[in-house]
Structures are given as C-alpha cells and as structure tokens.
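Please produce the structure of this protein holding beta-D-fucopyranose.
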Amino acid sequence: MSDHTLPLSPAHLAAFGPDFVWGVATSAFQIEGASTEDGRGASIWDTFCAQPGKIADGSDGSVACDHYHRLEADLDLIAGLGVDAYRFSVAWPRVQPLGSGDWNPPGLAFYDRLVDGLLARGIRPYLTLNHWDLPEALQQQGGWAARATVDHFVAYARGIARHFAGRVVSIATHNEPWVVAILGNETGIFAPGIQDRAVAMQVAHHLLLSHGKALQALRVDGCAAELGIVLNLAPIHAASEAPEDLAAARLSDGRLLRWFMDPLFRGAYPTDVLEHLGADAPQVLPGDLELICQPMDFLGVNYYSRSVVGAAGLVEAKSLGNPLTDMDWEIYPAGLDELLQRLHRDYPLPAVYITENGAAFADQCHDGRVRDTARVDYLARHLEASANAILAGVPLRGYMVWSLLDNFEWASGYLKRFGIVHVDYATQQRTLKDSALWYRDFLHGQHERSAA
Ligand code: FCB
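Below is the modeled complex.
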C-alpha cells in the first residue's frame, strides 16, 4: 500500500466543503436480475448475453445481484455507509417493456420502493434514464440508429420525470454515450454488437439529440430535478512528441471527448473529427445542434484511467510502468485532476459530479473479510486528485464510487469485481470490503468536519 492512502491532508479534506455530495453508484442491468419478472421486457443486453461467446464467462443478467428481491436489505447496506446520495438507473424495459406505449405498473412500483426507501433513509436519489439497457423491441426497429428512438426516449423520460416528480433530485439522460455508440456499434464488443462506424456515429448523434430534446421537454413540464448527462472521459496522451503520434492522440481526444463536449457546450461537432469520418459522419438535420446544446444543471464525469495513443494505435497499459487494475487499466489518479482542469478551461461547465470512479481487483473473501488495500489506495488517490481540481477552481460538487456491489461487468460477466461490497454469487451474501469500511469512516470524518 502506498503512503498516499491515509490520511488525505487537511487542506484536501477541507476542499470538499460541507455541501459536497458523497455517493455510491450502480446500474439496473448490472445488479437487478429478475429479468423476466413482473412484466419486464427484454433489453438489448439480454439478447446480447444469449449469443455464445459475447460474455467472458458465458453469464447473463438474469440473477445478477438479485437486487430486485433484496431491495430493502440493499437499501440498509447503502444507508450503513453514510452516503448522501445513491446513483442508480431505471431499466427502461422494466417500466415500459416495448420502449413505447404501455407502462408496466409493477416495474414502476419497484422504483417507487427504491426511491421512497432512499428518501426514508435520508439518501438523495440520483437517477439515470439510460444505462445501456435499451428495450429490445426498439432495437428491432433500428435501435439508436433510428431517429424515431429519439422521440420514444423523450416520451420515456417525460413519463419517468413526471412519475418521480419531487422525489428524485437529479436526472441524467444517458450514461456514457461513447460506449453505447462505439463499443456497441463500431467495435461491437457490447450490445447490440454491431460493427459499423457509420451506424455508430448516427447512434452517437441520436443519443445526444435525445438528451437535448428530453431536457427541453422536462423543463417545459416543470421538472425540478437537476438535469444533465454522464460522459466517460479521459486525458489522451500522445505516445511521443512525433507529429504522427500527436495527431493520433488529438483525433482520439476528438472522438472520445470533443465529439460529445463540443455539441453539448458549444453547439457544434469538432471539424477535425467530421473530416476524418468523411462519409461515416452522421446525418444531422437543421436545428439538431441547437437542441443538443441545452443548458445543463450538471455534467457527470466517469473516470477510470487515461489513454496513451500513437499512430500505431492504443499503447498497452502494461508497457506504461504504472500498476494496473484487474481490468488491465492503468492506475493514473493525476489524470482525473488533469481532465477536470482541462474541461474547466475549455468549456463553460455547470456543476460537475464524478458519477463513477473505482477499480476492479481480484478480491478474496476470507472469514468475512476482504482486504482490498489496493482499492482503498485507488480511491484515496483519486479523492486527492479531486481535491486538487477543486482547489484549482473546478466546480466539482460530488463524487460517487463505482460500485456499491460487485456486479455484472458487461462483456466481462462476473469475472471482474468493482464493488466496495463483496457479493458471493452462490449465496448472494454481501460482505463489506475494507474499502467500504474505509469509505464509511472517511465519510463519517467528513460529516463531523462539516458539523463542527
Ligand atoms: C463504466 C460503466 C459502468 C461500469 C464501469 C466499470 O463504463 O458505466 O456500468 O461497467 O464502467
């Protein structure tokens, strides 16, 4: 364990301030299970998991953490950590099985119990509308590549915002549109498993458009929740100072960060990326960019690592000399501070939340104890980087650990453990890892400090 682990310096601890929002995060498909119960419709991830070879351990989301049936106990677990907020997602096919038309009352009732259970425990609900589990029925009609999906999403967003009016403090439209577009539709390693760059870029455009249209509609409806979007962002470093490596890194930054940040905050796509895409650039109708560029109450940033890119492609993290997580992602806390300061410099930012940050490690549970010192170290160093960003003037307002529970890590199945709470999938036993105990004590200290 490094000497950075504990404690953070008094100046770092004080940087967060009394109103800073501390939380933990999950998503519906990764924890709920009960994938065919109480009228839930199929999502593209159910379909994808059923295709041989797509998920590393051949698993699916049918049981996951069985959270659907263990809601009350899991809410108590969250409350026990002393967090201010819980970030979760609504499974669109659970509440509107076909993605349009009829709503599913038992599905809504589950989220009523979730939201009301959080409020009863003094925890603020942070809701995400789309954490990747598009109703399969909509994929059959073209998925996010079809412009009609935009309006189905807006109707879904309005229904949910109205249903939870006055109860959820925050609504994010999409989680990581880059992942949905690129991993889902260009490389095809995620659902729906399409490999077509033109489709991917049309998907990216429709996700952004649906975000803007949903925000506009929710504001017309008088929605009082804070509204925003969650992006996966990272600093992209060039493999060398050679012009071809610098150009490759610049393009990679364009596709990951500027492709999303520029339209959201400046109302235009980056011209270098448009040029690079050529015929694969999306069809953008007049007025689309004005719709995408809606004022936002917050930007959610998910941060895990940086990327190093050269003309030959992505440089393997293992060659960079820093420790890696179990995902083989480089541990690079300074990148979080660097990223946040760059966003602050380049864009007119609203409140920023780190909506995900965390790490997978090959944890072992022995006698009811998980000594995940590497995760404690990871979290502490990223909190330090967050504090540095605040001290540099970044309007950072909250931080959520990914994840509350070990869960279904998409194409990696159950092989990668991101939780601060260990899940024994055979028994569904939850065990607080040392990182959960550390986070709980840390939050206790922060709350004491604010009360003083
Ligand atoms: C993010 C996802 C989240 C989780 C983490 C590890 O890309 O939003 O669901 O899988 O990565």
